[in-house]
Amino acid sequence: MTASNKRQGLLERLAEGPVICAEGYLFELERRGYLQAGAFVPAAVLDHPDEVRQLHREFVHAGSDVVEAFTYYGHREKLRLIGKEHLLADLNREALRIAGEVAAESGTLLAGNICNTNLFEPGSNESATQVRAMFEEQVAWAVEANADFIIGETFSYTEEALIALEVIKQTKLAAVITMAFHRADTTREGDTAGVACKRIADAGAEVVGLNCCRGPWTMLPLLENVCASVDGHIAALPVPYRTNAEEPTFQSLRDPGCDCLPGEMPFPTALDPFTCNRFEIADFTKKAQDLGVNYFGVCCGGAPHHVRAIAEALGRTPPASRYSPDMSKHAFFGTDASLQAHNTDANAEI
Ligand SMILES: [Zn+2]
User: Fold this and answer.
1) Which residues does 62 contact at the CB level (< 8 Å), separation at least 6?
2) From the CA of 224, how far away is ligand 1's center (Å)?
3) CB atoms within 10 A of CB 120
4) Helix, strand or coil for residue 239?
5) Distances (CA, A) of 49 to 57, 101, 150, 228, 263
6) Torsion over CA of 211, 215, 218 and 223, rounded to 10 degrees?
7) What is the Cα–Cα distance from 261 to 256, expressed in whole angstroms?
8) Which of 74, 76, 86, 178 has the fewest other C-beta atoms within 10 Å?
């Protein structure tokens, strides 16, 4: 490869403009019938590799600049929980291989991925050691697969995120670290979003920000705080659900209009009526960009049409934009001169 056609890395791309990273594999593959809600382990990587590959391709088609290896919750603790710890290495290597294949064919970036372990306990050296070992093994597989950078995501303790960052920094690859905020506007140890992200940026993360749990409308105020506190690249990957001040996370949403839910909350499999439409995702993208965000995506619940909405809000036309709506040719609501007047004149009846 010559210097001119050498693939640009994450930082070079960010220097030229915003980067989009599609997420939400767990929820989308669950909806499609290839993954089980509950433990939310990415076993589909081994059970249904073609479906995982296809979803990577759909996200790229919709505008993602990154193919994120589907190793979220593919760590030792989650595999222990479902009695499949012996598949840990195979699952991680296969996830990276599938994602790498799609990144190579599309000229996008391959991202390795680590996440919240659910084992981190503040003040416990033993848990810190255990968590670090889990990150080290997953990061090593990402390096082995030639990942362009590594994402550490969905941390609710700044301290756990800092351990993830330390492990990633040992590889010299760029790190994108995003924090998940639950109902409180602080991490579980009490950091505001601004303080948490500044601590992580000061420790060397190339991109810091927020992902998961919060919908666009309840993530924005936290992003404002992050953007006021951090100078570098900032990430925003909300869940695409209509969260509100009383119910700021997708886990806390309630649906009093529905009396047939199996439990009291629509999370995680009955959130459909709360799903943001593409215009809301576009609106969020513009507002977040105005605040200073330059790394975008949608987390759990996100689908390709949301990714396309982000891309188009950023002024891009990914391949999927070829099929963006043109209502001028709609039989009843259109304006095309060749349409039947007996239909277009009657649109108020439809
Ligand atoms: Zn998520």
Assistant:
1) 22, 304, 305, 307, 308, 311, 318, 320
2) 20
3) 22
4) coil
5) 12, 12, 21, 42, 32
6) 30
7) 10
8) 86
Please give the single-letter amino acid code of residue 164: A
pLDDT tens by residue, 30-88: 999 999 999 999 999 999 999 999 999 999 999 999 999 999 999 999 999 999 999 99
Listed residues: CB within 5 A of ion ligand 1:
212, 299-300
Architecture of the domain defined by 10-316: Alpha-Beta Barrel (3.20)
d(CA 163, CA 149): 17
For residue 194, what is the enclosing H or E element?
A: helix 193-202
Per residue in 143-158, is it b (16+ CB within 10 Å) or e — as a string? bebebbbbbbbbbbbb
CA of 41 to the centre of ligand 1 (A): 13
Among 144, 148, 226, 151, smallest CA distance to 185 is for 226
Interval between CA 244 and ligand 1 midpoint (Å): 17
**Distance from the alpha carbon of residue 24 to the mean position of ligand 1, in angstroms:** 6
Closest CA to 245 of 271, 287, 214: 214
318 Cα–ligand 1 center, Å:
23
Report the alpha-carbon distance of residue 218 to residue 238 in Å, rounded: 9
Q: Indicate where the chain has its CATH 3.20.20.330 domain(s).
A: 10-316
- With a CB cutoff of 8 Å and minimum separation 6, the contacts of 198 are 229, 230
| DSSP labels, 177-190 | EEE---SSSB-TTS
User: How remote is the CA of residue 213 from the centroid of ligand 1, in Å?
Assistant: 6
Contact in structure between 152 and 208 (CB atoms under 8 Å): no
pTM, full prediction? 0.96
- 37 alpha carbon to ligand 1 midpoint, in Å? 13
